[in-house]
Amino acid sequence: MKNIVPEQARVYLPVVGCDEVFPVGRVYCVGRNYAEHAREMGDDPDRDPPFFFTKDASCVVPASLSETTHITYPTATSQLEYEVELVVAIGKGGSNLTLKQASEAVLGYAVGLDMTRRDLQAQAKKKGRPWEVGKSFDESAPIGPIFLKNAELDERVKEAEIGLKVNQELKQISHISHLTWSIEEVLCKLSEVFELRPGDLIMTGTPENVGAVKVGDEMLAWVEHLDKICVKVTD
């Protein structure tokens, strides 16, 4: 059979240390998975279970570790905000995973940005509507190369510093150990409602002090042991 329209291009992320690439499938995001960020957004982190939303795979922008990556300021918003996140790449699928199976499902890790049209998200929340308009838009997920998991990296990442600067000014700083729900717990909960598949990406949540950027601003985002990405907002 022939396609009636051209097939959309698939997004691939490079993998550090090898010639293979990671074909991006689905992108799941965890809402308010750091206590202080949950509080700044008006939630009670001690009471709320993890919840999930999605970005389309086409939102992913492969971000270089050595060069500045450019994203365009999106349409329909006047409040584009950054959220630095640890990204988990899934190598094995499954439903209703145990903690051990969840750990084995992880192929590797990367640093990413969950860019958000906060004003549109707030309007949607106020009316009880889905968040996609505020979250799932073009170039809303710059993500660096994937670092393959091994025992040493796994332990280091779980204690790693995570942070973000805008124009060299520190904005976000925390540690992965401050996640309300651990990586394995997130995967277990997510696999209760979706069957995870190889190629899925999980954005695990952002620390407190999210904020807005404008055209010309440059964001430096990092997770310790996973290097850093530099992303500039353009017209």
From TrEMBL:
InterPro entries linked: Fumarylacetoacetase-like_C, Fumarylacetoacetase_C_sf
Residues of the Fumarylacetoacetase-like C-terminal domain: 27-233
Iron is among the record's keywords: no
Alphabetized UniProt keyword annotations: Hydrolase, Metal-binding
Entry superkingdom: Bacteria
One annotated GO molecular function: metal ion binding
Pfam families for the chain: FAA_hydrolase
Name of the protein described by the UniProt record: Fumarylacetoacetate hydrolase family protein
Organism (species): Marinomonas algarum
